[in-house]
Amino acid sequence: MAGLVVRNIARADSSVVEAFAHYGVATVHEAQGRSGALAAYITPIYAGAHIAGSAVTVSVPPGDNWMIHVAVEQCGDGDVLVVAPTEPCEHGYFGELLATAVHARGVRGLVIEAGCRDVADLERMRFPVWSKHISALGTVKERLGTVNEPIACAGQRVEGGDVVVADDDGVVIVRREDAPRVLEACRAREEKEAASRRRYAAGELSLDVQGMREQLTAEGLRYVDG
Questions:
Q1: Averaged in consecutive runs of 10 residues, what is the pLDDT profile of the chain (226 residues)?
Q2: What is the spatial distance between Cα 1 and Cα 8, in angstroms, rounded to a whole number?
Q3: Is the Cβ–Cβ distance between 161 and 55 less than 8 Å?
């Protein structure tokens, strides 16, 4: 419903959210059953950023960033703005001034299925953004959207308070209520990969480490000498 702002949303326990910052997007995606990843066109505006935080969701009309300004008031320390327009749009909804405002409130970054601008300033500030476009096209402030209502962003449903993990590989969403379970799965996956890494470093083949040979044979793989 346009014009609705949901205040005081529930967020995952801060210790759980902080722990996700130790894991990459690929690990989180795999750990929760290869789910939650935003579309591959959502990419970082500069390399090297890695964040985890709680989603503050914003639905915006095309070419109109009014509701992002409204959302600033609902942001707190450790949050990540997740913004999606109601129709495909390339406008630059977000730039250095809004980044300054949300950074002052402890916001860790922005994920937007549209454009952002002032990217040199954002990189200088080290304020990370994952966007669909980089665009200088300006926006207006005329129409209402929503804040902290569920949105569809780059192929995923995102609710206020969900956990957002983002790095050079993209963005993944973890449902707030699933966060503790997925975190444990991330830990288990990292331990398993660490053991595999040691075996690879010792010269073993992935065919043997991951037990692939039997299934490959069953699928018809054959070897012949040349």
A1: 95 97 97 98 98 98 98 98 97 98 98 98 98 97 98 98 98 98 97 94 95 96 96
A2: 18
A3: yes
Measured distance CA(142)–CA(137) in Å, rounded = 16
Two structure tokens written together for 55: 């989603």
Check: CB of residue 84 under 8 Å from CB of residue 28: no
For residues 118 and 136, what is the distance between their CA atoms, to the nearest angstrom? 8
Residue whose C-alpha is closest to residue 146's, from 68, 92, 73? 68
| Dist. CA 211–CA 53, nearest whole Å | 37
Backbone angles phi, psi at 104, to 5 degrees: -65, -20
Question: 73: buried, middle or exposed (CB in 10 Å: 19+, 13-18, 0-12)?
Answer: exposed
* Dist CA 151 CA 115 (whole Å): 17
Which of 141, 84, 143, 75 minimizes the C-alpha distance to 115?
A: 84
- At residue 40, what are phi and psi to the nearest 5 degrees? -65, -15
Helix (H, G, I), strand (E, B) or coil at 203: coil
